[in-house]
Amino acid sequence: MTVMGHSEERSAADPAGATDTSSLDGAVRPRRRRLFVKYATLFVAVVTVALLFSGVFDALSYYREHRRALVRIQREQATAAAGKISQFITEIEGQLGWTTQLPWSAGVFDQRRFDALRLLRQVPAVTELAQTDATGKERLRVSRIGMDVIDSGLDLSRESKLTETVARKVYYGPVYFRGESEPYMTLAVAGARRDAGVSIAEVNLKLIWDVVSQIKVGEGGHAYVVDWQGRLIAHPDISQVLRNIDVSQLPQVRTALSRGPRGDASQPDTLSQAKNLRGEIVLTASAPINPLGWHVFVELPISEAYAPLYAALYRLGLIVLAGLIFAALAGMFLARRMVGPIETLQLGAARIGAGDLSQRIAVKTGDELEALADQFNDMAGRLQESYADLETKVESRTAELERSVAELRALSEVTRAVNSTIDLQTVLSTILANAISLAGMESGGIYVVDPATRKLQLRAAHGITAEELALLRAQPDHERHLQRRLGKDNHARPFNVDIHLEPDTEVRALLYRIGILAPLTIPLHDPANGTLIGALVVNQQAPGQIPAETIELLQTFAAQSVLAIRNAHLFAEIEAKGRQLELASQHKSQFLANMSHELRTPLNAIIGLTEMLVSSAAHFGTEKASEPLRRVHRAGTHLLALINQVLDLSKIEAGKLDVAPERVHLASLLDDVLGTARQLAEQNNNSLSLRVPEKLGSLTVDPTRLRQILLNLLSNACKFTKQGEVTLSAGRVTTGARDWITFTVADTGIGMTAQQQERLFEDFSQADPSTARRYGGTGLGLAITRRLARMMGGDVKVASEPGKGSTFSVRLPAGAGGEEQAAEPAPHRMSGGAADP
Amino acid sequence: MRRRDFIAALIGVVAAPSLARAQQSGKVARLGLLLPFPAVNSDFAQYFRGGMRELGWEEGKNWVFETRAYWRDLSAVPGCTEELIRAKVDIIIVVTLQVALAARPVAGDTPILVAVAGDPVRVGAAESLAHPGGTITGLATMSPELATRRVQQLREILPGATRLALLGEPGTPLMPLMLDAILPAARSLGFVVRVFDVRAPEGFKASFETMRQWSADAVIVLDSEMFWRNGPRLAAAATTVNMPMACGFREMTRAGCLFSYATNIREHFRRGATYVDKILKGVKPGDLPFEQPTRFELIINLKTARQLGVTIPDTLLTLADEVIE
Ligand SMILES: Nc1ncnc2c1ncn2[C@@H]1O[C@H](COP(=O)(O)OP(=O)(O)O)[C@@H](O)[C@H]1O
Ligand SMILES: [Mg+2]
């Protein structure tokens, strides 16, 4: 038996087993899910936190670096631009310086004019140049867009630009707009020598545009310059400048200007986020232009400034997202990897727990889980071993049980056979077949001692072919052989014979041929007198000893065989005796019938002659002789009745009384019967009456026998009643599913005691010994009545009380006559009950 | 299923901005160019193209020219303008204020860019240089102011000259403005001035003959598109009467004029592209100031000087931006 089979057996034995395993699965799933989700979530959470942390950290540091870089770049650009512009101004200043080298004297005038024109050519920003002498009078003015003016005589000495120039050697005028659109500045330089006068240049600041427009700040960014009043001086979009816009309201400009017209260049402006002229939010930085007190602003639209940042953030977001997806997948994978073995362990353990001990948990993780799985496997192995042990024990016990059950079954079958059938052949065959199959033998036979010849005869054989059987029967010596041995050794116990060791006889040769090598013979003894009644022989085809328990078992069968043989013998005896009895009874009936006939013939003659003699006695005058003659006549008549009744009875007994049913009209039959009985009633002065319902109808019945029944009862009633009443009544009664016709004869006579009623219907029985003397009669009437009633499918019963009268009732099946007799032999037992003998 | 959606969404996010950009670039700007003659491939057009290229515009891809020529017939300008408007141009580019003023009534809201504007405020094309206010904007030349400087330069070359002829094309809006500037300047430098009119190149010779009869020592050509275009013919006419001639366009000096002092109008066209750029980006022309020139070029033709037997003083030669030998 395999372990699987065992587990099946267990789960089959335990109906909850099946549901156990399914509920096991059901219980495992969500638990597994929970663990799986936990692991996966944990993993994803850890990775997410790490990713987000590093992402945010990266983003923050990138933002800071980016900002710092932007700050640096913008500030550098602003500073560079400021440098360039200040260089631009300084150069003009330097150029102007050249024009004030020479003192005003007649000889140098042309030279100075030429110098001035050359300055205009070399410095495109200077649109106009005026020169004054030491007294502050304008001596020369050259212009790109106008004619030269010489010695205009204009006195500029009072003007602030001149006084300031003289005082400081250089003067930077405020920015002003020509034609309300062109930014200009007056730049004046005083000559090194006092008499060289002052050069006053009108500088077109639009040329700073060249400087400013060359400053590239990203794609949409630019630089612009604001003077100390907050006016836009230079802008890449020159139209902005030409519109003469005051930008001092811009916060970044205000902040820069608040540092003063000569702001500290070493203290860099902080980068700020602000709105520019177009209302865009920009990152802006500024640097002061010394010594003008102007400021260069560098600005970059915030969208562009942070575009790389946003791109980086976007990338970072994508990376984080990809990381998250990867983490989720990896988490799921790892969780599955981790949960998988645990799940396997759990399922395996659950299976082992559910009884599947052949289950081995395959966890090859090389860690504690594997060790745990191994321990589970070990445990399952041990359990399996111990179960296997137990199973072999159970198995052998079961086999034993099965064997004994088989034995019992065989025995019960045998017993049943013994009890249920008296056919010895069948019983012995059954016993033999069971004995051989249980003992594990091949063939065998049962020999029975014939009571007549005292010889053993083979009565039953098993496992022997018909051909072999014929051979055996043809060799009756083998029975004699067996008998001789049984008789010789006087065996009372089973004995084993090895054919090889037997003397070489025809029997031995025969047995060899049939293949009987080691017959086991069990003698069958009658336990009553110890005589040998037979033998049970079983053949083992291989020579050798037969085990004691098999012999014991066979002895049981032997005992049964003894029982069967004895039963058979007894039955045979009983049968023989029965046959003899029956024969005797038949002879008696035959004799009685014959005798009655032989008696009636002379008796009729005697009665007839006696009657004749009595009637003619008076005629012959022999009246004295008439009394004895009457007695003879009476005795004869009585004898005749007796003989008739005995004849009837014997006929019934001998089975020779036939009933001839025919359709009878009951009312007329009853009338007829009443007519006959009237004579009897008158003898004891009894009144006789008939009570019949209107429509009694007819009945299929033997009218002679019915009349005989009724007359019997009526005659009794009249006989045992004096000056009383006798009533015959009839009617239909239905009991259960059957219809009956009931005839009742009631009288008011002497009645009977209960004891008397018991014996009433027996042959030759009367109420008490005096009855015959007082009333006459034979005691056969009621016996015949009952026999007849029963023959016709009916019965008779009595109800009586001493001194009060008796009531006899007969019932007959209404549907049929005598035919039903065979079909319904058992009479219906009526109340008050005439007990059966 | 979910994963595919996610990827689709991701692609959508990445692709959406570039798609939007691609759709935006679908429009092609149409620039109406209204010239006195068919000159799609002229110097000016090329300078303008250069300016557009510098600003990142690609011809044929996001802008195209729609040119019309009015064949020097101002009365044809409104018709041409109408055609341009029908062609759904985004902007009309003209050379002179005269044409701009002629086109303005027809152009409606379509901006008009003037490449070489004399004095837009005085001719009524703009409220102010800083804020023109209307649909016309462009680049100013400062022609009148520069003309006075030409008188001075002529005085330096010809210290003994007394009679100065001024040749102008009557009807141009600039002419009276220039006269207003030149006449007092010339008188202050001791010139006797007489103005000569000419309406067509055919009259050049006759005009110079008249000047000679008047004994003009030199002539200053007042700025006009006709003179600018007929520089060689004008120079030839001047040569026949051996007349020193000062002009307002470097192209005329190259053609034989003695010298010119003016802005470089090719630069005007290049700068004009910045106006087109701004207007196409949605800036109203009224908000775009007329830009005044800052660079002026003195070009001297020494060949002509030799032919005339005129000696250019060294001081002037040193100051010249270009000397044609
Ligand atoms: N109607 C009756 N009343 C009283 N006793 C009766 C009656 N019928 C029968 N018996 C008793 O039953 C006995 C048996 O009757 P029966 O068999 O007819 O024999 P017999 O009439 O020949 O005596 C009678 O002897 C009598 O004692
Ligand atoms: Mg009787």
From TrEMBL, chain A:
Domain HAMP: 336-388
Catalytic reaction(s) noted: ATP + protein L-histidine = ADP + protein N-phospho-L-histidine
Record membrane topology: Multi-pass membrane protein
Superkingdom of the source species: Bacteria
Keywords associated with the record: Cell membrane, Kinase, Membrane, Phosphoprotein, Transferase, Transmembrane, Transmembrane helix, Two-component regulatory system
PROSITE patterns in alphabetical order: HAMP, HIS_KIN
Regions annotated as coiled coil: none
Localization per record: Cell membrane
SUPFAM superfamilies named in the record: ATPase domain of HSP90 chaperone/DNA topoisomerase II/histidine kinase, GAF domain-like, HAMP domain-like, Homodimeric domain of signal transducing histidine kinase
Bias (Basic and acidic residues) ranges: 1-12
Predominant place of localization: membrane
Bilayer-crossing regions: 39-63, 312-335
Region feature (Disordered): 1-24, 799-837
Residues in Histidine kinase domain copies: 594-816
GO cellular component: plasma membrane
PANTHER family given in the database record: SENSOR HISTIDINE KINASE RCSC, TWO-COMPONENT HISTIDINE KINASE
Entry protein name: histidine kinase
Organism: Bradyrhizobium uaiense
Organism ancestry: Bacteria, Pseudomonadati, Pseudomonadota, Alphaproteobacteria, Hyphomicrobiales
TrEMBL record, chain B:
Organism domain of life: Bacteria
Span of the signal peptide: none
CDD domains the record matches: PBP1_ABC_unchar_transporter
Protein name: ABC transporter substrate-binding protein
Any Pfam family matching the protein: ABC_sub_bind
Residues annotated as transmembrane: none
InterPro entries membership: ABC_transpt-TYRBP-like
Phylogenetic lineage: Bacteria, Pseudomonadati, Pseudomonadota, Alphaproteobacteria, Hyphomicrobiales
